[in-house]
Amino acid sequence: GIQVEQSPPDLILQEGANSTLRCNFSDSVNNLQWFHQNPWGQLINLFYIPSGTKQNGRLSATTVATERYSLLYISSSQTTDSGVYFCASSNTGKLIFGQGTTLQVKP
Amino acid sequence: GAGVSQSPRYKVTKRGQDVALRCDPISGHVSLYWYRQALGQGPEFLTYFNYEAQQDKSGLPNDRFSAERPEGSISTLTIQRTEQRDSAMYRCASSSSQSTEAFFGQGTRLTVV
User: What's the rounded Cα separation, in Å, for the pair B78 and B16?
Assistant: First the structure.
């Protein structure tokens, strides 16, 4: 099955800084999603992006399906951006998750 | 409903007891998924349904785990003879027939003591 790898595993930023999170996947996919797990444990949908580029406020994402990677950009980070960011992909119906990137934004 | 609803939110049970976790998907969503997430890890797939049919149960760790969705809506994940290693966050997600995008509920935190 698909393997999903995320990098970096941990990231510490000063408030206001920008960052890029990466997700590599091992096979062609028909689903790729980015999630934010907040401190209360809830998984929040950020992007559904099997291919192309999307933007939502300070967040944007790009998936290059032919090269099997996706990038999540966070600009002007805020302390509320802290948490774990997961990438998940699928080509069979079941989403396979990466191990996540733990982001800490310091004031 | 407006979102995926899971109950209970928290469950503490004694080793050896059976537990049933409930998931109520987004209204009209045909696919329903169960995941388990250990502390510090990403969610791991357990099983999924299209309507009432269980399509894939390859992630169920052993025969103590089972799931059903008898009317193609609400689903129940049952763990028999619970063990301490079953302690985890159990997550449910659903998706529509129009898109593969999955939406997750708030999860059930299971603690086996």
Answer: 13
Please state the three-class secondary structure of B13-28 as a single string: ECCCCCEEEEEECCCC
Place of tokens 């049919």: B53
Other Cβ atoms less than 10 A from the Cβ of B16: the count is 10
Within 13 Å and on the Cβ side, how many CA atoms surround B22?
7
Q: How far apart are CA A33 and CA B7, in angstroms?
A: 25
What CA–CA distance (Å, rounded) separates B72 from B32? 9
Q: What is the pLDDT of residues B39-56, one digit of tens each?
A: 989 999 999 999 999 999
Specify which residues A11 forms β-bridges with. Answer: A103
| pLDDT band for position A87 (cuts 50, 70, 90) | very high
- Give yes or no for residue B79 having a pLDDT over 70: yes
Distance from the Cα of B42 to chain A's closest Cα (Å) equals 5
Are B47 and B54 in contact by the 8 Å Cβ rule? The answer is: yes
Residues of B with CB under 8 A from a CB of A: 31, 33, 35, 41-45, 48, 50, 55-56, 59, 89, 91, 93, 99-104, 106-107, 109
Residues of B in contact with A49 (CB under 8 A): none
Binary contact (A48, B99; C-beta < 8 A)? yes
